[in-house]
Amino acid sequence: MALEISLKIQQQCSSFFRQPKGGVVKFRNAIVKSLAAAGLCLTWPLLTIGPAEAQELPDRPATEMLLPETTVAMAKMTSFSEFFEKMQNSLGAQMIEDESLAPLVERLYEVGEEQYGRIEESVGMSLDELRTLPSGEMTVALVAPRRKEPAVVVVIELDDENEVVDKAMGRLREVVEDENAIEEVSTDFEDLKIEKAIVRGKPVFFCRYDGVMIGSSSREVLEDMFLRWSGGENEKVRPLSENRKFITISNRCSTSDEFPADAMFYVDPIGIFKANAKGNSGMQMAVAMLPAFGLDGLLAVGGNMYVQTEGYETIIHGHMMLASPREGLFDAIALKPGDYTPQDWVPVNIGSYLTTSWDAQQMYAGIEEISNTLSEGSFDQFLKGVKNTAGFELKEAIIDEMNGRVTFIRPILTGDQFNAIGNVFAIGLSDPDKFDEFLEGQLSKEEREEDWSSVEHEGVQYWTMGDVTKRSDERRKKWMEKNKRKVDPEREAARAQRRKSMRQSRPSCVVLGDSLIFGDSEEFIKIAIDTYNGNQESLAGDKEFQRHAENMTKLLKSDVPAGMLYSDSARELDVLTRAIGSENLKEYLNEQAESKPENFQGLKDALDENPLPNYDFFRKYIPTSGGFVTSDDSGYHFLLFQESRLVED
């Protein structure tokens, strides 16, 4: 079964990326090979008959000490069983066991089991048995050996005493033994059993030793890992644990030796790009262009995840390692510390709030330099185009008026649509009154009267676009008439039904306080004005946010990060439950249950019998979360966290 899945992945990838000719074919083929190898490595190691013959190797070092320094990507879960146990004790687990939600969860699980039951016989194991297969570490890595194709590595710890492991191996062998030969290969390790499988012409090497499965698409990489395990070393290639970039990120993302990370990741994006550029002149040219944009300064990205540690549900440390000094785009997008108290117009009823500060002048100069590096004089031509089209000088009218603060918000709106969450972008202004006059002059021009109209709410003027949906319909009607297309009544009815379940965008903007606010909802502009006037509760005055900010300051040991995030997932879940309980969705499920009862009847019955809880219920189990970003000589550091707490009855 697993082999069939792997072959289908390879077949679909090959079909998708196949091209008759072109310079990117080699790159695409490399991706296909890597994806296919990953699928094979995840399944073939389970086919070994049993553990390798006893060879006295020392205790296994950490995987990062076995992998080579040429590893360009790695994702590792330290212990699957411990992670699962922590999840069972989490607030989320307590939530689904609450009597308000447990009946629905149990019913949905039954529906899932019913769906899985159709393929359980071919898989040979139940869902509960599948869950017990990995017992310890799970790691997937991509290695880019010098002057060789990338290789996939998979490490899985299994419980040798778990009967399900042998059951899984037996079932997998039944699937593949008639079609694929598995042979043992010679190795420098006398009693170590390494096996090889050839699938569609691609070799996969694997070994099971001391409860650990290690598989790779490269025999050399696999044997190199066992060489390090035995205490030896490859004089030409050091282990990943001695890679300078990996060391820097690991040190920045560790909390303490007392609390090891539950999961970690490491990615060298430029290394991946260069590895796939081998033998491809087009991609090699692109690699040569990276310095022009400063993108070669992105050295690596990585992070650690901690679950239920030191009073937190989760803590995630992430680090983007950058070259110093920064050049190109990374020099242009310069984040700077600041005061991130929410603006007076930000309401408390939001899903998320993200704010940061950019050096607007440095950003402008950096983009100008990059543009002129690629094509001398191109930036000046761009500025002339802006002036001829819009009638103003970009730098004087906009860039010089920015104070650097940039904010993104997802406000909660009324309605029972799935997308009843707005999208808002705001920039800070040095002289709001001056910019307000500029904005009015631009949007009130005769050629823009059809697009924008001035509206007043509570004494504040704002601008909103006309009915976007209506104009879209008009353009579509004209296109159909021009191309002599006939209207399909059924398709139009389905289109109208989809619109009923989706919030229609209505772009609007306003200058409020020291911010230019632009959003896809006129409703939010009115909410922002009401909040600014003191008629609605603001985020800055919310006790939950204030407590969160104090906690963030303790973690940061400062109150001036380069950016800050605040998230209220309970409010977003409330939007989801409203949409699920809406008449539109009920109507849709009724139709689907009639036409496809085997797929939808169980879900429909579960939702009919067990209504979803509201915001107050989710607030009890889902604390607010957030994080911040700081900047230093090594790059940008990110910390995301969600507090743990006792659930009150």
> In angstroms, what is the radius of gyration?
29 Å
The tally of helices reads 25
* C-alpha geometry: globular
Annotation, overall tally of beta strands: 20
Helix content: 40-55%
**Low-confidence residue ranges:** 1-55
> What's the domain count?
3
Largest sheet: 20 strands, antiparallel
End-to-end distance, in Å?
46 Å
Oligomerization status of the protein chains: single chain
Structural class: alpha+beta
- Strand % is 15-25%
- Residue-averaged pLDDT, rounded? 80
Write up what this structure looks like.
The chain is an alpha+beta fold and 649 residues long. The chain has three domains: 2-92 and 119-242, no CATH class; 246-324 and 633-649, no CATH class; 334-466 and 506-631, no CATH class. It is 44% helix and 22% strand. The chain has a 20-stranded antiparallel beta sheet, with helices on both faces. It starts with a helix and ends in a 6-residue tail after the last strand.
